[in-house]
Write a sequence for this structure.
């Protein structure tokens, strides 16, 4: 897949076979979405090396690990990052010189995320932060920091009704 130099947008759903891991993605990618990829190893070090990546969306169960760490000077062109339903994620580390152009960060239903090393540095470029169904302690910590004053922060709490169960008595 890395030989396909004309590919700029990619949406992958489902487990990635070993021969098509994140290290095999084309350097020309500008937008990448992963869903239900079930990656066991932190994808951020490799994804951060994609020089043209503007939009990264890691959707439900795309990553199964507890920690994500961006590398120094990683994600040089990234403007939008969405982390949705990474159920096991507890800690996300962002070095000072990573994601220098990030404008929009949306984190949704990462209910175990507690540690956010280096996030305060993101506030210098970030314009919008959207937190949906996130731990109250994390939201409170972000809201009380002065460096976030220039960032538009939206906090959503969505409650879902359980899906109706089929009536097995009639079957």
């Amino acid at each position: 897949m890395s030989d396909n130099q004309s590919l700029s947008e990619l949406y992958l759903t489902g487990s990635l076979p070993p021969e098509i891991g994140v290290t095999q993605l084309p350097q020309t990618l500008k937008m990448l979405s992963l869903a239900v990829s079930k990656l066991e190893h932190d994808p951020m070090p490799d994804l951060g090396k994609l020089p043209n990546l503007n939009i990264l969306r890691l959707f439900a169960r795309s990553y199964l690990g507890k920690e994500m760490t961006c590398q120094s000077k990683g994600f040089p062109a990234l403007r939008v990052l969405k982390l949705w339903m990474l159920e096991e994620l507890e800690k996300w580390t962002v070095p000072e010189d990573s994601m220098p152009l990030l404008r929009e960060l949306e984190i949704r239903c990462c209910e175990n995320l507690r540690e956010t090393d280096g996030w305060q540095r993101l506030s210098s470029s970030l314009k919008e932060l959207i937190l949906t169904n996130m731990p109250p302690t994390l939201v409170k910590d972000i809201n009380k920091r002065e460096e976030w004053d220039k960032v538009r922060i939206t906090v959503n709490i969505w409650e879902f009704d359980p899906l109706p169960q089929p009536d097995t008595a009639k079957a």
Q: What stands out?
A: Strands lie at 9-13, 31-35, 55-58, 67-69, 80-84, 91-93, 104-108, 128-132, 152-156. The two ends are 47 Å apart (CA to CA). The CA atoms of residues 73 and 97 lie 5 Å apart. The chain has a mean pLDDT of 89.
